[in-house]
Design brief:
The chain is an alpha/beta fold. The protein contains eleven helices and twelve strands. Helix content is 42%, strand content 18%. The relative contact order is 0.17. Bound molecules: 1,4-dihydronicotinamide adenine dinucleotide and magnesium ion. 1,4-dihydronicotinamide adenine dinucleotide is lined by residues 11, 15, 67-70, 80, 236-237, 252, 255-261, 267-268, 271, 308.
Length: 330
């Protein structure tokens, strides 16, 4: 297994080494290819990612990604959006469930996954900026909608066999198109479906998250709803994600580079560690993925947590505690 490792910027450089320590503790045969990509590279070279970087990544099986600071350049195009498109990582899978002993702002019981279309929608990249008007073209294709709905149905088959299709079809024609395609795919798979307008979903995620299991939606809606979901799940420092395509996969914490805390050694490494856990699951290493979950639970139960969770432990202390717990369970 060849893994491209992209720590990126800010706290990405702190939490990705923590995740790698945990992977090393499992003693798996993973060849790591480190890559420097991001704002740091942009400052040095004027480019955040090169074609050569993309070629190296394409020679790997998957990517572990930290976060990238957006450079102050009006013409800058998101590295992550480019990677998702170049590697055709069409399904962004973001699970949310409370972790042990984490204080939650509202509802206590929920366990749902947001399945976000990752290559089109509002992030099509088709944009025009004129003097008095700006346009972004929202692209929804049959192929893109079919495959994200299919990903949601496959996930639902291993869960409660139901999906919720989230859209704004009462206003957007592109979303009634998306909705109808998702309904067709759900029926074909024998999966129960319901639908919800995105604004109403934003409300319900806070008040009644326990009602949902697999939520399928378009790119921008999924981006926004998943940060909201992270808030009810205890914070961005805990939430992991997988970007899956037919040939590659990229695993990353949901959070960004957090310049406000970067360099202080207090970033919560759990989101990155749980992203590595999702990678192991994708590789079929279910036992090892379970060991990481147990180790994270142990450390949370012991109250070894960073300041975002009300603790006073450092990134390294949390990472060491999780690594030690993994080693003990072997
Ligand atoms: P952010 O996710 O970096 O930070 C939001 C807030 O959450 C901050 O207060 C931060 O300290 C806190 N936070 C995030 N991760 C944490 C962790 N692991 N432990 C403890 N606290 C944590 O989002 P923000 O501030 O909007 O963006 C900062 C930079 O990151 C921007 O340049 C943005 O464009 C970029 N970004 C990159 C992403 C990526 O590469 N995947 C995703 C989101 C933002
Ligand atoms: Mg986001």
């Amino acid at each position: 297994m060849k893994l491209a490792v992209i720590p990126g910027d800010g706290i990405g450089r702190e939490v990705i080494p923590a995740a790698l320590n945990v992977l090393d503790a499992l003693g798996l045969e993973i060849e790591k290819i480190p890559l420097e990509i991001g704002y740091g590279k942009w400052e040095l070279t004027g480019s955040a990612i090169t074609d050569e970087d993309i070629s190296i990544i394409k020679e790997c099986d998957c990517v572990l990604f930290g976060a990238i600071t957006t450079p102050p350049d009006p013409n800058y195009k998101s590295v992550l959006v480019r990677l998702r498109k170049e590697l055709d990582l069409y399904a962004n899978i973001r699970p949310f469930a409370p972790l042990k002993k984490v204080k939650l702002p509202c509802a206590k019981k929920f366990d749902f996954v947001i399945v976000r279309e990752n290559t089109e929608g509002m992030y099509s990249g088709i944009e025009e900026l004129h003097e008095d008007t700006a346009y972004t073209t929202r692209v929804i294709t049959r192929k893109g909608s079919q495959r994200i709905a299919q990903s949601a149905c496959i996930l639902a088959k291993g869960r409660k066999k139901e999906i919720t299709i989230v859209h704004k079809a009462n206003v957007l024609k592109s979303d009634s198109f998306f909705r109808d395609i998702c309904v067709g795919i759900a029926k074909k798979n024998g999966i129960a479906y319901s639908e919800k307008l995105v604004d109403s979903m934003a409300y319900d995620i806070i008040l009644r998250p326990e009602k949902y299991d697999v939520i399928v939606t378009t790119n921008l809606f999924g981006d926004i709803l998943s940060d909201e979901a992270a808030a009810i799940a205890g914070g961005l420092g805990l939430c992991a994600s997988a970007n899956i395509g037919d040939h590659y996969a990229l695993f990353e914490p949901i959070h960004g580079s957090a310049p406000d805390i970067a360099g202080k050694g207090i970033a919560n490494p759990i989101a990155a560690i749980l992203s590595a856990r999702m990678m192991l699951e994708w590789m079929g290493k279910v036992k090892e993925a379970g060991i990481i979950s147990m180790a994270v639970d142990n450390v949370l139960m012991n109250g070894i947590v960073t300041p975002d969770l009300g603790g006073s432990s450092s990134t390294d202390e949390v990472s060491r505690a999780i690594t030690e717990s993994v080693m003990k369970s072997d």
